[in-house]
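Let us practice reading a record.
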Amino acid sequence: MSKIAIDLHYLPNLEFFAAIAEAEELLVFPRDRYQRQSYLNRTRIRLANKVETLSIPIVGRRPRIPLEEVKIDYSQKWQAIHLRGIQSAYGKAPFFEYFFPYFQEIFESGEESLLSLNQRFLTVCLKLLRSSARIAIASEEKIPDGVRDIRGQIEPGRPFSERVFYQPVPYTQLFGVDFEPNLGILDLLFCTGPEAEKILRESVKKQ
């Protein structure tokens, strides 16, 4: 069985899904430390005139706390902002009406934990991509033998072209003339629907 240790990103980008394309089990480590300026609480969508980053606010600014202790700050009404942004970006996309309710339900659930919220989003994404990979929670901090560890590798600070996971495969996006690679998974799902799985498999960088 192919097992990969992952970070639970918020509505992960296409590089993330290319990296886990062959995985049968995705191992999450709740005691890993929260990293600011990471994809743990941010995703990217394409609006009419720009690419927008959506960020989930967290309670407090305590550095280096375990992921399982990170709570979402609902005082900032971030759900309304994110839902409005997603609807503006993809409301006219071919598969929006089919897939959006899955995500809207999670947005409106009031999940307190960032880790739990991200796990729910990833579970739905895997389902819509018809992936057989399952998410497992590690019971200890030590990584088991035979597990490929990609934690900390997919980060906003460096371009995806410098890493070994993802090569862009263009598809028809809603806005713009030039293809914008490596957006959040919502872009691919809403724009391509059942073709998303095939596009992701073609996006796996040849080693």
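A brief commentary: The chain has a mean pLDDT of 95.
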